[in-house]
C-alpha cells in the first residue's frame, strides 16, 4: 500500500486506507477502528505517524474517540465519506474528462453519448 | 520529559582544529524514536558518542537524564550505544556474552535475545571476533535491542547486513519499541529504509542542525512539480529549485512547498502536477551543498 510513485505522506495514506475500509463496509458505524499501535505493526510505521492518520479522521469527524476505549466509526461516517468522494474524486475526474474532450474536439453531445454507450457495455457485462 | 539536551555544544578533536560540532542546540523528548540523519562526515557519530558519555565536549553542555553523561554512572547504566566498534572479550563465546549482558543490563530481555539469536542462526560457541562484518553488526544489534535501555543509540547498525536481515532488524526494532517505548536514536545513510519507522528527524549538516522535528513536517516542506518543461521552467525561476530531472519533454523539479491554493489551481490548469515527495528527497534538498542536481554538472560542462 505504500506507493513510491505518488509518495503521499504515509499518515495520509493511512487515513485514506481507513476511509476505504469504511466506504466498502469493512468497518461499519460505531465499530471500533484499529488503534495506532495495530496500524503501526500492520504497516511497519512509527505509532506516532499512525496516530496522525487517525487524528486526520477525528478532525473530519469521520471517527470519534471514547475515553479509554479507543476510536469508533461515526454513525454518519459512511455518508460523509461518500459525499466527500463525490465532491473531490468524481469532480476531479469530470474536470479531467472535460479537459481531454476539449483537447480532442469532442462536444458535449458526443461525450454524453459516449458515457451512455459505456454504461450499456458495462451493464451487459455484469448481468 | 526531556531525555537529551544540547546547549551550545562545540566539539573539536584537536584544540584549534576545525570543530566537528558547532554551537549545537537541541533537545529530545523521552520515548521518541528519532533518526539522526546527515551526509558522511558531518558529525553524527561524534554527537552520539557525546550523548553516551564516551567523549567530552570542547565547550557547551550536554545533559542526558539531567546529568552530564561524561563519567556519569546513571547515564552509563541507562544507555547503550551500538556501533561497529563494539568490542567484547575474545575469550568469551557468543552464548557467554549474552549471559554476561544479562548480568550487566538491568532490563535485559533474555527471551528476546535468545529468540533473535536463534532466528539469525548464530552458533552459541562461535567467537565475536571471527564473525563476518554483517554477522557482527547483527549480533551487536541483538544486544542493543535486548538490553531495553531507557536510552538506546544505534549508530549505523545495519552496515554490512544483507537486505533481508536489514528488513528483519528494522521490523524487530519497531515491534520491540511498540512493546517497550523508550528513547531511541538511530542513524543511517538510507533514510528511505527507515523514514516510516521514525517519529522525529534530527538533521545534521556542517556541525549544525538545519532541521529537527516530525518527519511528516520535513516531507511537507518540499514538493515536486511535474509537467511540460517550458511551463514548469516559467514557474520555478522565482523559486529556488533543488534538483531537476528531464524525461523527454517532461521535467520534474523539486521546490519548496510555498504554493497558495490559488497558485496550485493555476498550476493544475497549466497541466503541471504537484507531487508530494518522500522524506528522502526533502533530506537531499536540505543537505545538498549547491543548487541543482547531478545533471547540471554535465549541462554546464557542455555550455562552457
Automatic annotation (TrEMBL), chain A:
One of its GO terms (molecular function) is DNA-binding transcription factor activity. Residues 8-76 form the HTH gntR-type domain. The keyword Transcription applies. Gene3D superfamilies: Winged helix-like DNA-binding domain superfamily/Winged helix DNA-binding domain. Keywords: DNA-binding, Transcription, Transcription regulation. It comes from the Bacteria. Transmembrane segments: none annotated. PANTHER family: GNTR-FAMILY TRANSCRIPTIONAL REGULATOR, HTH-TYPE TRANSCRIPTIONAL REPRESSOR YTRA. This is HTH-type transcriptional repressor YvoA. It comes from Filibacter tadaridae. The gene is yvoA_1.
TrEMBL record, chain B:
It holds the Pfam family ABC_tran. The keyword Nucleotide-binding applies. PROSITE patterns: ABC_TRANSPORTER_2. One of its GO terms (molecular function) is ATP hydrolysis activity. Transmembrane segments: none annotated. Residues 4-231 form the ABC transporter domain. It comes from the Bacteria. This is ABC transporter ATP-binding protein YtrB. InterPro entries: AAA+_ATPase, ABC_transporter-like_ATP-bd, P-loop_NTPase. Keywords: ATP-binding, Nucleotide-binding. Gene3D superfamilies: P-loop containing nucleotide triphosphate hydrolases.
Amino acid at each position: 500500500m505504500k506507493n513510491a510513485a505518488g509518495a503521499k505522506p504515509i499518515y495520509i495514506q493511512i487515513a485514506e486506507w481507513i476511509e476505504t475500509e469504511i466506504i466498502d463496509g469493512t468497518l461499519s458505524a460505531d465499530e471500533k477502528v484499529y488503534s495506532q499501535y495495530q496500524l503501526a505493526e500492520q504497516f511497519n510505521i512509527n505509532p506516532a505517524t499512525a496516530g496522525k492518520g487517525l487524528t486526520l479522521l477525528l478532525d473530519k469527524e469521520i471517527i470519534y474517540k471514547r475515553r479509554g476505549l479507543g476510536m469508533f466509526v461515526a454513525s454518519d461516517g459512511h455518508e460523509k465519506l461518500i459525499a466527500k468522494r463525490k465532491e473531490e474524486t468524481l469532480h476531479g475526474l469530470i474536470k479531467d474528462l472535460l479537459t481531454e474532450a476539449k483537447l480532442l474536439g469532442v462536444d458535449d453531445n458526443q461525450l454524453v453519448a459516449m458515457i451512455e454507450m459505456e454504461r450499456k457495455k458495462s451493464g451487459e457485462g455484469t448481468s | 520529559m526531556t531525555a537529551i539536551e544540547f546547549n551550545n555544544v562545540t566539539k573539536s578533536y584537536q584544540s584549534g582544529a576545525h570543530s566537528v560540532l558547532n554551537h549545537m542546540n537541541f533537545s529530545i523528548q523521552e520515548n521518541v524514536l528519532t533518526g539522526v540523519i546527515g551526509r558522511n562526515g558531518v558529525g553524527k557519530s561524534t554527537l552520539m558518542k557525546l550523548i553516551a558519555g564516551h567523549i567530552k565536549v570542547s565547550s557547551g553542555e550536554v545533559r542526558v537524564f539531567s546529568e552530564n553523561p561524561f563519567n556519569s554512572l546513571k547515564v552509563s547504566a541507562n544507555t547503550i550505544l551500538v556501533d561497529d566498534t563494539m568490542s567484547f572479550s575474545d575469550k568469551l563465546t557468543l552464548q557467554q556474552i549474552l549471559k554476561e549482558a544479562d548480568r550487566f543490563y538491568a532490563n535485559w530481555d533474555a527471551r528476546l535475545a535468545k529468540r533473535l539469536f536463534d532466528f539469525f542462526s548464530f552458533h552459541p560457541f562461535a567467537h565475536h571476533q571471527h564473525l563476518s562484518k554483517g554477522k557482527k553488526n547483527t549480533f551487536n544489534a541483538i544486544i542493543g535491542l535486548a538490553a531495553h535501555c531507557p536510552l538506546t543509540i544505534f549508530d549505523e547498525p545495519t552496515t554490512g547486513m544483507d537486505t533481508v536481515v536489514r528488513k528483519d532488524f528494522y521490523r524487530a526494532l519497531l515491534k520491540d519499541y511498540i512493546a517497550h517505548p523508550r528513547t531511541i536514536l538511530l542513524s543511517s545513510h538510507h533514510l528511505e529504509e527507515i523514514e516510516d519507522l521514525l517519529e522525529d528527524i534530527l538533521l545534521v549538516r556542517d556541525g549544525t542542525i538545519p532541521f529537527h522535528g516530525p518527519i511528516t513536517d520535513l516531507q511537507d516542506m518540499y514538493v515536486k512539480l511535474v509537467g511540460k518543461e517550458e511551463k514548469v521552467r516559467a514557474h520555478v525561476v522565482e523559486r529556488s529549485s533543488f534538483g531537476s530531472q528531464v524525461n523527454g519533454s517532461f521535467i520534474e523539479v523539486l521546490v519548496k512547498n510555498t504554493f497558495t491554493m490559488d497558485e496550485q489551481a493555476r498550476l493544475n490548469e497549466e497541466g503541471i502536477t504537484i507531487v508530494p515527495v518522500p522524506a528522502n528527497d526533502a533530506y537531499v534538498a536540505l543537505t545538498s551543498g549547491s543548487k541543482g542536481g547531478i545533471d547540471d554538472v554535465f549541462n554546464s560542462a557542455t555550455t562552457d
